Amino acid sequence: MCQNILPSSPPPLPRISRLGVLNIMHLATPHSAILSAVIFNALIIITLILSLYAGVPIGRLELSDCCAIPADAMAGGLIAPFAGIKLIDMLLVGLHLFEKLSLMWVAHCRWAT
């Protein structure tokens, strides 16, 4: 059951030298990159749900309204995920949380089988 969550977990990037070029954000490991992206997406979903409860209007936009959005606001939406994932990856690796979470997951999988 535990193996089905990430059925094709990627090998470390140094083993496959051609894929090392794709690590443009210089994340620690492929596994910490996946975990960082999952945490970032969870935080974004929570933020969107809370903004709905706070009454922030989110609705349909007409084409003319979309063209009126400043370019720097759109650029922030493109840059924020990269910066957020990199920050979360640095925190996971720097505080040694990634190793602790990995050990807890391995222990859980052994217990569950």
What would you note in describing this structure?
The protein has a domain at 33-51 and 71-113. The chain is 62% helix and 0% strand. The protein contains 4 helices and no strands. α1 crosses α3 (71-94). The longest helix is centred in the middle third of the chain and has 25 residues, at 30-54.
Features of the shown structure:
about 110 residues; mainly alpha; about 60% helix; extended; disordered N terminus
**Helix/strand class:** mainly alpha
Q: What's the tally of helices?
A: 4
**Major sheet:** none
Low-confidence stretches: 3-8
Q: What is the total tally of β strands?
A: 0
Helix content: 55-70%
- Fraction in beta strands: under 5%
| Span of the ends, CA to CA | 8 Å
Shape: extended
**Helix-strand pattern, N to C?**
HHHH
Mean pLDDT across the residues is 74
Computed Rg? 19 Å
